[in-house]
Design goal:
CATH class of the domain at 2-107 and 185-254: Alpha Beta
Helix content: 25-40%
CATH superfamily of the domain at 2-107 and 185-254: Alpha/Beta hydrolase fold, catalytic domain
Number of helices: 10
Distance between the termini: 6 Å
Strand content: 5-15%
Order of helices and strands: EHEHEHEHHHEEHEHEHH
Radius of gyration: 18 Å
CATH topology of the domain at 2-107 and 185-254: Rossmann fold
Mean pLDDT: 93
Low-confidence stretches: none
Structural class: alpha/beta
Length: 258
């Protein structure tokens, strides 16, 4: 079984194009919605969305599964969390695949105070947004995404309450997800976690994906003992726009194991 972890502000529908190829090949793919995303509930008042909480919740999901997934597959934020989990709990991860993610975002110690102030400021209440139309949200999400309108609509529909096609829509996803993080790991902390990853790992980067990820790979590729990198067609959401080459890369990496 493959446990699929989506990216920030996306949802489990982001893996639908990949599942249409992998499932007929004999793979079982389970895709979840992170808290605050898609159809998952929101965190309680007075709490926030820090990535450490996501790691804890991922561990709770793993504990509830009837059997451990053979592979953790994550895109963007999901790829970051999958790789951190594989370092914190190396005995629980057999294979790791990260799409358009090369480990955690980090900061330097000198930026700690500035980051905390900005993170806390982002938690201040904001005016409610005006009524939104699905068509306008699709156009906004298309900008710079590399996605097609049908793929954008597929993602948005799971994050929205839609009563009628021409009526205003409401966000199902939690607006607190857009708050800035008040704390980030340092590079030494990230290295300490990644150095514990025991599973073979595959990092898939889009040929038109984020250039900074290739730079991060050059710096971090030696941190995980058994890590491979492969370029695939597409941009940041290559698993949606170009699912066939991504699925083939996944299949070659996993072999005939299920």
């Amino acid at each position: 079984m493959i446990l699929a972890l989506h990216g920030w502000l996306d949802n489990s529908e982001s893996f639908a194009p990949l599942a249409q190829i992998l499932v007929p090949m004999g793979y079982q793919l389970l895709a979840l919605d992170w808290p605050g995303h898609g159809h998952s509930g929101h965190r309680g008042q007075g709490t926030d969305y820090h990535f450490l909480d996501n790691l804890y919740e991922l561990d709770q999901v793993m504990a509830q599964l009837p059997q451990s997934p053979y592979c953790l597959l994550g895109h963007s934020m999901g790829g970051i969390l999958a790789s951190l989990y594989a370092g914190v709990y190396p005995e629980r991860v057999q294979r790791l695949i990260s799409i358009e993610a090369v480990g955690p975002l980090t900061s330097v110690a000198e930026e700690t105070v500035e980051r905390m102030r900005a993170g806390f400021a982002s938690r201040r209440p904001r005016p409610r947004s005006r009524p939104l139309l699905l068509s306008s949200l699709i156009q906004a999400r298309l900008q710079g995404s590399g996605l097609t309108p049908p793929l954008v609509e597929q993602l948005l529909r799971r994050n929205l309450h839609i009563e009628a096609p021409t009526e205003p829509v409401r966000w199902r996803s939690d607006p607190r997800l857009r708050r800035r993080s008040a704390w980030m790991m340092t590079e030494p902390q990230a290295h300490a976690i990644w150095s514990q990853v025991a599973a073979p790992a595959l990092f898939l980067l889009g040929e038109q994906g984020f250039p900074k990820l290739r730079d991060a790979w050059q710096q971090r590729q030696g941190w995980i003992p058994h890590a491979l990198k492969q370029l695939v067609p597409g941009a940041h959401h290559c698993h949606m726009t170009d699912p066939e080459p991504v699925a083939q890369a996944v299949h070659r990496f996993l072999g005939h194991e299920r």
